[in-house]
Amino acid sequence: MSSAAPQFPDISLWMAELGPLTPRPALLGERDYDVAIAGGGYTGLWTAYYLKRLQPSLRICVLERDICGFGASGRNGGWMMAAVEGEARLLAGLDEEARQLAREAILGILPEVEAVLARESIDCDYRRGGGLFAAARYPEQLATQRAHLEHYRALGYSEADYRWLDGEELAGRLRLNNPLGAIYTPHIARIHPARLARGLADSVSALGVDIFEHSPVTGLAAGWLQSEQGAVRAPVRLMAVEGFSWNLPAQRHHVLPVQSRVLATEPLSEAQWTDIGLARYEVFSDASPLITYAQRRADNRLVFGSRGSYRFGGEPRADFSADGEAFTGIARLMRACLPQLEDVAVSHCWGGTLGIPRRACPHAVFDTASGFGTAGGYLGEGVGASNLMARTLADLVLGRDSELAGMPWAHRGLPAAALRHWEPEPLRWLVYKATDKVLGWEESACAGGAPRWRRQLWRSGSAALAALRG
């Protein structure tokens, strides 16, 4: 294995590749708008985009605490999925017609994004190669993925949406360690996250939306958003800050800010990729309890991410340069999946903060009386789901009688009434830390070939903690 030390870019490899960026001006003084949006990531930018497209006369501004792409939108693993977390809960209780409409809306994420990328000439290395949810390394993964496939069937998704590959078919696409089988879906694309974020920002600016960078929202009041050096008066105020909501009382109780960590290898040769697979540029994960996700980049690096951490009190993190031991563990997990990478160097490591809602489902919420709303709660699936939630939020704001405004993730009223609160500290920290420990023990027991009773013990423990969080 190469001894070259990996780099820790200020934000991520994705953002570093864009070169030095000149920030847009900060908000200075008081300004008046029709709509003010806090957060210059995917959710805020998509919302501004659709509001301006639907009603061009609106005066809209976006306030970003750093630069667009600084948060999770510029730090993720680059999966764009036509999926939302918590679909079973969202679709529960709907009749079949309503379920079908919801499924169509979810599966429509990629076609909608593809249309925008073409219309706005955004080049973000978009490649729709589908995704592989693999069972490999140890037999418990096979049971996990089989259960996931049954879950999709119960939700009404067809063989064309999610289908089973046996071990030989999986190995024909991706040569993981001990390939047992996989769920394949065509509804995932690989992207360059930072290029999408910056491309969206440029497109929104071209439509006439004012973006103020280095303008964190520090306070909320009726009709106002307060920033460090100025304030915006607007009848509609929308929060799109996800994991960076820890210092905003109106938001912080609804979202748990957690960290995810990502690494990238040095560029691999075509011979190495022939040995690994992914000739169609599929993204992949295995059924590890530690949560894995990976993609083959346009420059032939492998990007590989895994579960991260939670900081007591929920303060987000941006600097991961002190996490060398954790990244070593992620690299070890990557090589357990792909032993072909044993002598391949890890070139870059970074991390980011994402938001976990208490109900484990995404949401778009707007209160007409106060003009206050929010969208988010993606649990790591926000690259695609943010587009759907932003379109939903735009329809709620404009009072449109649309199918999206009637979806189970759309809520009318104040966020405080529509969304569940997380428990106070130290309860949420203790539950997260306990979950982290049990998942680590489960992975170690299963991957290490521990006795069956021990593997089952930790799998039962993690299932119980998941039920507790629900």
In short:
With 470 residues, the chain is of the alpha/beta class. Helices cover 35% and strands 23% of the residues.
Describe the protein in words:
35% of the residues lie in helices and 23% in strands. The longest helix has 21 residues, at 427-447. The chain is globular and about 65 Å long. Helix 5 crosses helix 11 (382-398). It is an alpha/beta fold and 470 residues long. It has a seven-stranded mixed β-sheet with strand order 9-3-2-13-20-19-21. Strands 1-12-11-10 form a four-stranded mixed β-sheet, with no helix packed on it. It starts with 12 loop residues before the first helix and ends with a helix.
CA radius of gyration:
22 Å
**Helix/strand structural class:** alpha/beta
State the major sheet: 7 strands, mixed
> What is the strand arrangement across the widest sheet?
9-3-2-13-20-19-21
Task: Supply the key terms.
470 residues, alpha/beta, four-stranded mixed β-sheet, globular
Topology of this protein?
Elements: H1 13-16, E1 29-32, E2 35-38, H2 42-54, E3 60-63, E4 79-81, H3 87-91, H4 96-107, H5 109-120, E5 131-136, H6 140-154, E6 163-166, H7 167-173, E7 179-185, E8 188-190, H8 193-206, E9 210-212, E10 217-221, E11 224-227, E12 230-233, E13 236-239, E14 255-265, H9 270-276, E15 283-286, E16 292-296, E17 302-309, H10 324-337, E18 346-357, E19 363-367, E20 372-376, H11 382-398, E21 410-412, H12 415-418, H13 427-447, H14 452-469
Parallel strand pairs: 1-12, 2-3, 2-13, 3-9, 5-15, 13-20, 19-21
Antiparallel strand pairs: 4-8, 5-7, 6-7, 10-11, 11-12, 14-17, 14-18, 16-17, 19-20
Helix pairs in contact: 2-8, 2-11, 5-11, 13-14
